Amino acid sequence: MASILAFLSERKHSLLLILSLFLLSSLLLLSLPSVPIPFFSDRQRTPPPPFPPPRSPPPSPTTTTTTIQNSNPSPAESSGDGRLQGEGDEEFEFRWEICRVGKGVEAADYIPCLDNVRAIKELRSRRHMEHRERHCPRPGPRCLVPLPRGYRVPVPWPRSRDMIWYGNVPHPKLVEYKKDQNWVRRSGDYLEFPGGGTQFKQGVTRYIQFIERILPSIEWGRHTRVILDVGCGVASLGGYLLDRNVLTMSFAPKDEHEAQIQFALERGIPAFLSVIGTQRLAFPDNVFDLIHCARCRVHWDANGGRPLLELNRILRPGGFFVWSATPVYRHNERDETVWNAMVALTNSICWKTLVKSEDESGIGIVIYQKPLSNSCYIQRKTINPPLCAQNDRTNVSWYAPLDSCISQLPITNSDQEHIWPPPWPERLNTFYSSQHEEPNGIQSAEKFYADTKHWKSLVSEVYWSDLAINWSSIRNVMDMNARFGGFAAALMDQPLWVMNVVPISEPDTLPIIYNRGLIGSYHDWCEAFNTYPRTYDLLHSSYLLENLMKRCDIIEVVAEMDRILRPGGWVLLQDKVETIKKICPVLRSLHYVTTTKRQFLVGKKGFWRPDSGGSSR
Description:
By secondary structure, the protein is of the alpha/beta class. Among the domains are: 195-377, Vaccinia Virus protein VP39 (Rossmann fold), CATH 3.40.50; 439-605, Rossmann fold, CATH 3.40.50. It has helices spanning 2-31, 117-121, 173-177, 204-214, 236-241, 260-266, 302-314, 326-329, 333-348, 375-379, 441-463, 486-490, 510-515, 545-551, 554-564, 577-589; strands spanning 62-68, 77-78, 83-85, 90-96, 163-165, 185-187, 190-192, 226-230, 247-252, 271-273, 288-294, 315-324, 352-358, 364-369, 476-479, 497-503, 520-523, 536-542, 565-574, 593-597, 600-604. The strands form 4 sheets. A 7-stranded mixed sheet has the order 10-9-8-11-12-14-13. Strands 17-16-15-18-19-21-20 form a 7-stranded mixed sheet. A 4-stranded mixed sheet has the order 2-3-1-4, covered by helices on one side. Strand 20 and strand 21 (600-604) form a beta hairpin. The longest helix is centred in the first third of the chain and has 30 residues, at 2-31. Keywords: Glycoprotein, Membrane, Methyltransferase, Signal-anchor, Transferase, Transmembrane, Transmembrane helix. One of its GO terms (molecular function) is methyltransferase activity.
């Protein structure tokens, strides 16, 4: 006991000093004001808030509060007030509202860059279809598109090719307008597509067979793999060509043929909203094996022949143009005038007429072929239209004006000719070089094969087994930054198709995607995509969002993703963990059920919409 007392006596001054410091520190901490901890920290820099408050919210908006967890969350529970509850204690709030659209626009079918009523009213001219082109609102929408009443999970493929739910695309106008041409008909709760068309008097299957019979070198599904169908109607040609291993990019404008592209995508057939007006189509030069037009209502010789020059630009050297229209087989004054103009124009751009024939029903077809080299262009007696100066042309066709000149052909062999890609399916996994790729071809080939190997492994080892996605429910897929198309190639054995999008801010790999027998388009994800709402079952991106967030409003990007994704559809994102943590709460604010695993985020969209109305203004 004596020794203990002696020890305390020796240390008493030190103990008193430590106790005093502790009490003083406690008092200072208690006196400091409360400072909130930032939601997402960055030790290197202090950026603006990643999720700014909504612009001009309505007086009584729907607010969603999402609880964020750092580990893999269990499915959240939804309460009536829009609050998603989890185990974490951090919250992210955003006020979502239903989009308010312009007069004459159906809110459930809202396409921001094609339904900008104010911008369309201010156009000085509509002579060249300017009102059907893109006019994106600034800033972009930060709102949600409502569901049609009675919307339900789409009919699965392959039944959807022939029938869809009427309630998902409740547009009867085309049923009445084309009732005598077997485009589409109403049958109870369904819309049925019997495979007819204005030029398909004996059905689309017979029409496809007739084309190959009069020109066997087309060789559907081997020599001819990727085609463009201009003014496609409800895309029955593309739907039935799938049986022949032909992948068709069907496109038409949003016009009086109400919802034709929406019908096509609801059926599970690749389709795209666009128009040949004053700007180039969002496709590369020299990529389509064949272009088809059946009464597509395009005046090819208009505006100095620019519409046909645009087809010439995107048609592969040696590719075919199949034209089925009344000037081909009728002999009245009007049709003969159009035919004579077409003869003069095709001769001026060195297209060769391969065959002109009529089927048993009297429908006529003419098939042209684009030259393989530049020699004919150079040898013309009259150089009109002129050859384009290569240094004057932009490489990426995004908001670029139509050419009034002939784009020069890429040369791929010593005979100064363009070589056709390998036959399908060999071309899928074969690197095919053209002038579009990097100057160092070996480097490009190495990147191509490495990318193909990477995606084959990732899809088989991770996407199929480790991620909670029901792949059997997926038909329409979009890869938001496709690079070489490796993700789509890895899915080739599945009953689905992929729209490969190459962002304009990324290297231009879209020609390579077409060369391997796949389809896609250019796009800027700071703007809305040219498609109807609820048209894709799965949206995929790999390391896109981090860079995108530096120049785009991420709320606008996520709102656009939600617009084009079907209820019951999936978002599959691969990115840096920090980026995943920023995107996850935004998806949960939309009541998506989310799962994270390392650098992967999977979100499943439900049927939730805000309660606020979608009135016009």
